[in-house]
Amino acid sequence: MTTGTILAMGGGGFSMEPDNPLLDDFLLSLVPRSGMPKVCFLPTASGDSDGYIERFERAFAAPRARASVLSLFKREHADLRTFVLSQDVIYVGGGNTANMLTLWRMHGLDAILAEALSAGVILAGLSAGMNCWFEASVTDSFNVNDLQPLSDGLGMLTGSACPHYGGEKHRRSTYLALVSSGRLPGGYAADDGCALLFRNGNFADAVSSRAGARAFQVHETDGVAVEAPVPVRFLGT
Hints:
With 237 residues, the chain is an alpha/beta fold. The chain has one domain (5-234): Class I glutamine amidotransferase (GATase) domain (Rossmann fold, 3-Layer(aba) Sandwich), CATH 3.40.50. It is 27% helix and 30% strand. Helix 8 (171-181) links the parallel strand 8 and strand 9. The longest helix is centred in the middle third of the chain and has 11 residues, at 97-107.
């Protein structure tokens, strides 16, 4: 049984909404201890983009947090396990989900992240950083112009994921087609600006940084993908 806390964002946060901190503030509010939370950014999916890292470091600079970055392209930490388990939050950026998962497994980071989750480290992310926690997802990892199923996620959350649900052309229609055909199991879809909170493997809450951002639980019934709306709390006023 999965234990621990995961925040899966369809889109948003510092990289998509630099002037809207609501989702990232909500993430930090989940850290149980007082003081500056230790937040580590995993930019693997973007190839450790320098610009992406710089935006993260600006967004999570003191006194908001104690920011760090775990690069696998320019690896500086010999003991990944000790470093990851010392964090309060692991924040996974967007990019190529398939490449990211492959590299994580080569470095043994997949097992370390599973251990960190059980040890109380909060796992979070958007886009690829949403996809990775589930068993499966819809992704543009193999062709930026052709969404396809990916079936070898980390499996910390059951079912499939679809980020950018209403924000990118063909995301919703492709996901529904994949679920209805059985090529993907049912799961969760989230718009940009919406985050899904899971505790111990179970859905617990949905929040948004944008009024009207939506989330759905999607399942297949008699060859048809059915969308069940998930109540979403807007974090603004």
